[in-house]
Amino acid sequence: MVFLAINYHYIDDEKKYERGIYPVSVKRFQEQLEKLGKFFTFVGQKDVLDALAWGKKLPENCCVVTFDDGLKSQYEQALPILNKMGIPAIFFINGLPYLESKALFVHKVHWARSKMSPAEFLGEVSHLYTLFTGEPFNLGSFINMSEEQLRSFYPYDHLDETRIKIFLNKSTLDLALREQIINTIFKSIVKEEKEFCDNFYMTNKQVLELYKNGSIGWHGYAHKPVTLLSDSAMQTELKSASRVLSYITGDSKAAANSVSFPHTIPVSLKIAQVAGSVGMKFGFTMEKAFNTSLLHPLLFSRLDANDIPGGKAPLFSMEDNGIKILDKKLNICRREYFEEGT
Ligand SMILES: [Zn+2]
C-alpha cells in the first residue's frame, strides 16, 4: 500500500503578498487534487481511524489532504473546492488564537516579513536585539552553516530570507528574547492583535462546523517546536486539545484524535509516546516519505504542497506503471522507528 499525506498552509492568490508568505492558489490546489485523484483514492480522518481501530482496509493507493495552522483562507478558499470534488480533509488548529486571541509566533514572523524587505526586517531585529541585550548584533554568530546547508533547509527561498528563517527558527538565540523581538516588530505593524486573529484564523463557528464533520485535528497549543521541548512542556502543548475544542464546541467531551506536529525535524519516538499518552490516535511529522504501512501511526510522514505533482518542486511523478521518485530527498518508505530504541 501507499498512504500519502499532503499538507497545505495558505490558500490564496499567489501574488497577494510581495514576500514572506507564499500561498498556493485555488487553481493550483484544484489541479493538484485532480492529478492526485487519478492515482490515489482520497481518505479522511474517519477512514484512518477505522483502519487503525478495527482493521478496515484502506484503498491500495490512498491520500489524505491536510491543512496546518487553522488559517481562515483554508476555510474560505480550499473548503469549497474540497466540497465540490467530494474530498475529505483534516484541518489542524492551534489553541492560542482561540483561548487568548493571540497570533502564533510563526505567523507574526510571516506577517512582518510580508510587510518589510529582508534588509528592513534584519535592521529592526538588529536594533531590538541591541536594545534588549545591550550587545551588538551579529547574525553570523547565530548561524554556523554553509550556503549549501542553508539551501537544504528552505530550497524555495532567497538566501537572505533563509538566513532570517534559520536565525528565527533554528539558531541558538534565546527563545524568550526571540519572542520579545518579534512581538515588538509585530506590534509596530498590527495595532489590534485580536482583530488580526479574527481575520487570519478560522472563526469558532467555522471550526465547529469542521469538528462536527470529523475534520479537525490538533497542531499544538502555541505551535512550539515539540521535538525541542522538555517532556512536560511537550505534554502541555499536546494535551490542551480537548480544553480548546471544548471551549470552541461547547461540548465538554470534545477531543482530537489526530495531531500534526509543528517543526518536527528531527523526528523522535518521544513525541509519539507523548501524543499517544494524551489520546491521539495518529499523527504527522515532516519526514519526506510515503507511508507504506500503518505501523507507528503517530509518526506518519507527510509531504508539502510544493513537493507533490503540480507544486513548485515536485519530488515524484505518477506514471502509468506507478510512482517515479524525482528527487532523492523523498524516501519510498519511512524510517524504521522501532529500531531507534528510544
Ligand atoms: Zn504549523
UniProtKB/TrEMBL annotation:
InterPro entries, per the entry: Glyco_hydro/deAcase_b/a-brl, NODB_dom, Polysacch_Deacetylase
The source's superkingdom equals Bacteria
| Principal location class | secreted
> What does UniProt give as the signal peptide span?
none
Gene Ontology terms, MF aspect = hydrolase activity, acting on carbon-nitrogen (but not peptide) bonds
The answer on whether this UniProt entry bears the keyword Signal reads yes
One GO biological process this protein is involved in is:
carbohydrate metabolic process
Localization (cell): Secreted
Q: Name one GO cellular component term.
A: extracellular region
Q: Which residues form the NodB homology domain?
A: 56-96
Please name the Pfam families in this protein's record: Polysacc_deac_1 (PF01522)
Is Nucleotidyltransferase given among the entry's keywords?
Answer: no
Q: Which UniProt keywords apply?
A: Signal
Q: Which residues form a coiled coil?
A: none
Q: What is this protein called?
A: NodB homology domain-containing protein
* Provenance organism: Candidatus Giovannonibacteria bacterium RIFCSPHIGHO2_02_43_16
